[in-house]
Specification:
The structure holds 2 protein chains of 2 kinds.
Chain A (H helix, E strand, L loop, with lengths): L5 H17 L4 E7 L2 E7 L2 H7 L17 E7 L14 H6 L4 E3 L2 E8 L4 E8 L4 E6 L15 H9 L3 E5 L1 E4 L4 E5 L6 H10 L3 E4 L2 E5 L5 E4 L3 E4 L1 H6 L17 E4 H4 L7 E12 L6 E4 L2 H15 L5 H13 L1 E7 L3 H13 L1
Chain B lengths: L2 E4 L4 E6 L2 E6 L4 E6 L1 H8 L4 E2 H9 L2 E2 L2 H17 L3 E4 L17 E2 L4 E5 L2 H7 L17
Parallel strand pairs in B: 6-8
Antiparallel strand pairs in B: 1-5, 1-7, 2-3, 3-4, 4-9
Classes of the chains: A alpha+beta, B alpha+beta.
């Protein structure tokens, strides 16, 4: 079997994207993500507008000519001719949402069938440049705005000694704690409880963590999906719902709307806290062994991220040794819970 | 009676696009299940014996018992070898309720369970997807 190689994909795509941008009026946003200058450039303004709300809290203070990482957005329906170039589709279709990697070129093709919209995501590790090509912006489902460009940020992070971790991160000005837990473990409730009691925000669902000796959590999205249970507990937040439709009963909200002054770009991770919601039980914080901390980090992260690579195992095996981990069982006593976390941060 | 159960402490799984992704987090091994392997693996969320599996599988699939037992034996061996499931010496299991027997049995679907070491293996081993190749524009799935 002959493999399609890097050039088979990147040559036609580079030419196509370059021509599209020459023929279009350009919209650009400069961001500062995980200590890197990131540029998002779109050949069609409505596409960048849909993707931005979740990441606009990371807007760079100053625009720069040189970016560490560029993401180019294209809406095929707005291009002259409206056709992608010829590329070898078969490996992409074979792998589906898990994507492929060809000589340092990561790619994923998804066809969202209810809306009949197609998305081709491409990340070139050699150039630190990505393409996000959609068939028609108008057909994109609303939930795309919740974690936009996830697969591209994932590939970029992995090629830069970082990893997307599925966790909430909150903290004070100097230290953060990573709140681990799969769906329903109480991450949203805990993040909100902490913010309502004076903590700052880094993430609710996904952050970028560095592989340094002292890992740092970087903000990625300021979006969250709240259930009706969350709105019952925090009814004053209901005005921030962005959608009437729901996926699995969840509503999209943005923390930039709720707590605009509490959003930070990064915090060192002082502790990992694995959450265990026990609605009728007392709030108790206990030490967690390293192996369990590793499993709690990787279990939900591997299933939430677009692909799984063996190097992820190694990344989190090392991380478990660098940060002390705890298990927090928490119930209705939010004051006690917050006190436990405050003490942990200030220790 | 010997039963088998998924090692829930370090084996995670998720069903996506008619494929079951299974990861052994301790070893960092990654698997894809397709066809009846999906149903059979998920039956081991609760401890189940081979006889229990036969009863449950034949309640939803039209399959000869001899064929099924051979397939189950191979799957169980593969899952034990890869530390995805454990053997339990004593277990109690629920029998299939009459109401859980499908009114119309599905045709037997070959269980496929593939282990991957890295992404290059994924390219080598995944079954071929029929498509219109080498054309301009978005792909057209047949």
């Amino acid at each position: 079997m002959a493999y399609a190689n890097y050039e088979d994909y990147i040559k036609p795509l580079d030419e196509f994207v370059s021509k599209t941008f020459n023929d279009s009026s350009i919209s650009q946003r400069d961001l500062y993500i995980a200590d890197h200058n990131v540029q998002i450039i779109s050949s069609y303004a409505p596409l960048i507008d849909i993707l931005m709300p979740s990441i606009e809290h990371l807007s760079a203070d100053n625009s720069t000519d040189t970016a560490d990482f560029k993401i180019l957005l294209v809406d095929i329906s707005q291009t002259i001719g409206g056709q992608l170039p010829i590329i070898p589709w078969e490996p992409l279709l074979r792998r589906g949402h898990r994507g492929i990697v060809v000589d340092g070129l990561y790619m994923q093709f998804v066809h969202i069938k209810p809306e009949d919209v197609m998305i081709l995501s491409v990340y070139d590790t050699h150039k630190k440049q990505a393409y996000y090509i959609v068939s028609d912006t108008k057909k994109l489902p609303w939930y795309i705005s919740g974690a936009p460009l996830h697969e591209i940020f994932y590939w970029w992070a992995r090629s830069t000694n970082m990893h997307i971790l599925h966790c909430g991160v909150v903290g004070t000005e100097n230290n953060g704690i990573a709140l681990l837990g799969s769906k329903g473990a109480g991450k949203s409730t805990m993040v909100l409880t902490c913010l309502e009691n004076g903590f700052q925000y880094i993430s609710e669902d996904y952050c970028i963590v560095t592989g340094d000796e002292s890992p740092v959590a970087h903000s990625l999205y300021n979006s969250a999906k709240f259930t009706d249970f969350t709105f019952e507990k925090f009814p004053h937040l209901a005005i921030h719902k962005k959608n009437n439709e729901t996926v699995n009963g969840k509503h999209l909200v943005y923390y930039k709307d709720i707590y605009p002054k509490k959003l930070l770009k990064k915090l060192p991770i002082k502790a990992l806290v694995s959450l265990n919601l026990d609605i009728n039980g007392p709030s108790v914080l206990t030490k967690l062994n390293e192996e369990q901390a590793y499993l709690d980090m990787i279990a939900s992260t591997t299933l939430q991220n677009p692909v799984y690579e063996l190097s992820s195992t190694d990344f989190f095996q090392k991380m478990k040794l660098k940060i002390t981990a705890y298990r927090l069982s928490f119930g209705a006593d939010t004051i006690k819970t917050h006190e436990l976390l405050s003490n942990l941060i200030e220790e | 009676m010997t039963c088998y159960r998924i090692n829930k402490d370090y084996v995670v799984h998720e069903l996506m696009d008619l494929e079951l992704t299974v990861i052994n987090l301790q070893k960092g091994h990654y698997f894809i299940g397709k066809g009846s392997a999906i149903d059979i693996f998920l039956m081991l969320v609760d401890a189940t014996s081979i006889d229990g599996l036969v009863e449950k599988v034949t309640a939803i699939y039209k399959v000869e018992e001899t064929t099924l037992r051979q397939e189950l034996s191979a799957l169980i061996e593969q899952w034990l070898t890869n530390d995805l499931i454990s053997e339990l010496d004593n277990c109690s299991e629920n029998t299939v309720q009459e109401s859980n027997i499908a009114a119309e049995l599905k045709p037997w679907s070959q269980p496929i369970f593939i282990a991957f070491d890295d992404m290059r293996d994924l390219l080598l081993l995944d079954p071929i997807h029929e498509t219109e190749l080498d054309q301009q524009g978005w792909p057209v799935e047949k």
